[in-house]
Amino acid sequence: MNEQVTNQKEWKPEPAKTFEVEFLNTKIEQVQKKMANFGFNFTRSGQEENGEVYFEGKRKDGTTIKIIIGKGENYKSPAELEREQTEE
Question: Pick the residue with more confidence: 82 or 54?
Fold first, then answer.
């Protein structure tokens, strides 16, 4: 018997709570697509010692790319922004 649940809400992930989570977990797909547009295959990502995050890629000819993103002085995570909006 196939019963459909009609009141079920579509699952939505929680907003990222930190800079690192926002970029390494939620923006990675966008970065991979942009790298591919330039002919690079994504190879890895991570966090630098100073808190910056990076994404690396490589082309078939050996050319490499490294994108580094630093946290801005006034940065607010998506979770912080959402919390501020609900408090207004």
Answer: 54
